[in-house]
Amino acid sequence: MKELSRQLKIIKLKKRKMEEQKEYNRHIQDMIQPKLKGFDPVLFVRIKLVVGTSGKIIRVEILEKSISDAFIQAVLLSIRNANLLPLPNALAEQPPY
User: Across the strands, what pairs with 50?
Assistant: First the structure.
């Protein structure tokens, strides 16, 4: 019975962490995407951010991008100027995110 209880607790913690990841990723998008509304919607960039517990962006890596250098520069500027919230507790347990 104790083992089952322990496993349920672990599952709940993992689920909570996944929910907080999803919410925080949405927060990042909400901080960056509105600044890019003047660009053609077919343009894209896929990035990897490393975020510290305070919400400070530590590193940015471009994984995929469209052909527009102006768009990429606008994305990078938006990221640089983003004021992210501190990491939620579940994500701050193993920083950076």
Answer: 59
φ, ψ (nearest 5 deg) of residue 91 = -85, -30
Structure tokens at 91: 């994500």
Alpha helices (H) along the chain: 2-32, 69-81, 89-92
Burial class, 32, CB count within 10 angstroms (exposed 0-12 / middle 13-18 / buried 19+): buried
Q: How many angstroms separate the CA atoms of 54 and 51, rounded?
A: 8
CA dihedral angle for residue 53, residue 26, residue 38, residue 74, rounded to 10 degrees: 30
Nearest to 32 by CA among 87, 97, 77: 77
Cα distance between residue 28 and residue 75, in whole Å = 12
* Residue-by-residue pLDDT tens, the chain, 97 positions: 788 788 888 898 889 889 999 999 999 999 999 999 999 999 999 999 999 999 999 999 999 998 899 999 999 999 999 999 999 988 888 878 8
